[in-house]
Amino acid sequence: MSRAVRFLTCAGVGAAVLCGGALAWIAVPVPVAVTAYAPGVALSIVDRNGVPLRATRSADGSQEQWIAFERIDPDVINAFVAVEDHRFWEHHGVDVRAVLRAVRDNVDARKVVSGSSTITMQLARLLRATPRHWGGKVAQAMWALRLEAHLDKQQILEQYLNRVQLGQATVGVGAASALYFDAAPWELSIGHAATLAGLAHAPSRDNPLESPRRARARQALALRRMQQLGYATTDDVRRATDEPLAVRPHAAPFLAAHFTTRVLAWLEEEPESSARGAVVRTSLNLELQSAVEAEVRHTVEMLRARGVEHAAAVVLDNGSGEVLAWVGSPDFWAPKDGQTDMVVSPRQPGSALKPFLYGLALDRGLTAASVLPDLPKSFATATGSYAPRNYDRMFRGPVRAREALASSYNVPAVALAARIGTGPLLHTLHLAGFASLNRNAEHYGLGLALGNGDVALIELANGYRALAMDGEWRDWTWRAAPIGARGAGETRRVVSPVSSAILLDMLSDPAARIPGFGLETPFDFPFPVAVKTGTSRHFTDNWAVAATRGFTVAVWAGNFSGRPMQGVSGVTGAGPLLHRVVMETAKRVDPGTLTPPEEAGAVAVPVCRLSGMLATSRCAQLTEWFAPGTVPTATDSWEGPEGVSLPEEYASWAGQQMRPAAEGITLSSASMDTREVSASPARDIAVRERPSLRITSPRDGDLYAIPAGIEARYASISLQASGVESRSVRWSVDGRPYSGTRWSLSVGPHVFRAMSARGTEAQARIVVVP
Description:
The chain is α+β, with helices and mostly antiparallel strands. The termini are far apart.
């Protein structure tokens, strides 16, 4: 046998083997998984009332819907057959005539100018993602033959028409019909059918929304081929040419952009999401969401001149933990950083973490009447000496815990953290859900009391929600909860119910807030609200949180870049936004009443305003709440002119250097008018009956500092009394008669007495520090 014969024999045997193998492979049924449609690739996200929030798409960003073959308009089927494969009904997957013609054209042009893919081959590429070269063509042809061997022509067309890409991220004629014509694929005109068929060649370039001119040209080509094949008449072509190319772009809803973006991400994290392919009902209240979005934009517009470019807000329903509003930035579509979501982006919260420190301290025996030092002091830390300062760079000497928290003094908070320890504080913050604080206590140090660790706005809101819910933490949720649900999942005790009630009473006390924030603030509401602000170092972040019994609001203002704001504090920055969002929420959610301290087991006891000790008849009084077992046992230790001394709590600060106030003005809230004021049904700021004679200057409990660089003769205060004729009043200072109308400041404690001609008497006790 010659070599040529042997070669031909081997080649023949090889070809027979290949052909036999190919035929055997084609004869194997197509796996069901190859052609199966995964129902529910798309999602429909709605708010709690069923209002659409966002058009849904699959994980790859495409939008599709499966339409059965019998529901597709015959004109659509004829149009695709005419344009893409006019011998579709005749061949068995591969059109040999088209292959030969394509080879001829490509050889003549010396480049690829013509393809030979049939609709079945195109379907093979869509199902198996074959590469676009000659090897891929062979694979497409093999799969096309296999598909034709096991599927009928209608099944092949149904698969193809539901998988073909038709521009603007649409997949299939169902999604494309809705997008371009706002119609179903069984409602299309012959012109619309021709338009869709024309898109299959170059969907991203020739679709009506991208280029109406090219789309019209492709439509005309499709109509000509349909007319040539008898699928359209001359009148059909004329009518199609006269009608609009696209009825109108279908504007899919895209509301609550940051929130719905997070929802899609959360669903992707669910391994077997039961929501895929269904309507996902979220907890969001779209009406409230729209109002909060408007307030966030308004805030930025008002503060832009002061260096504020961004703001964010989140609202939680306290009972269920549902998210009611979620605004991550003023403009989701801003080109630079609009899609940054500050609801979940950790930043330093400043003083907004202080309530958790005070809550821990209340559980360990501190009371709202306990006296804390607001003095210049350095604390030894692992990184060196740490000397905290207050926001206004002033010190106020001894302050009660109620005032220290409500007015957000930094120095008492650091002193309290030093006493309790940063380890227990960090543990409490973890119990309150601040997972972003993922470093150890040594890393944060005492600065943790002032919020030097990064937290997320949603964590802050849910932490305050725990305080409003009697100190019990539960996770928040973005899904709509059943009516009356109290939240699900893990529960943790952050602080005791009695401590949380007292804590919220302190945070909702407008009188205790005056020394730090003044008389007029955005934190006064027509219903009980516990409020706290926070400003990070260098004024880069401004926070405010409000908790009612019914809901919690947390807001942030600042710059994503970290650029400092210009003179923006909690009162002027996040505060006004907080007020407006709280009022908008209260229109839709009952704020309720914060748990009264007496219902949580606290007892009301009169104490002296200055010392926090049990009240006597000789001091300005107020009623304070105490947890059982923490009521003070000592009475105020002032004894009058003989043996005048400061209470023991004051001894540690009396001789220390204080930052002076200009012109000898008072440094303590004791300078407030102590006339009877009712801040809430359960709290009286001053309760004792006033005599007819009253000393109005100085006021009982005032704390004075001698201004630096001022001559002693100018550092004086006026002696004034009300209730009687001033000329009939006789004065004594520290037990000695005094005839002047002004008294020069002298370091130490002093007692002033005013006596009228009728024998009535009033007294005021003050302290003057260097």
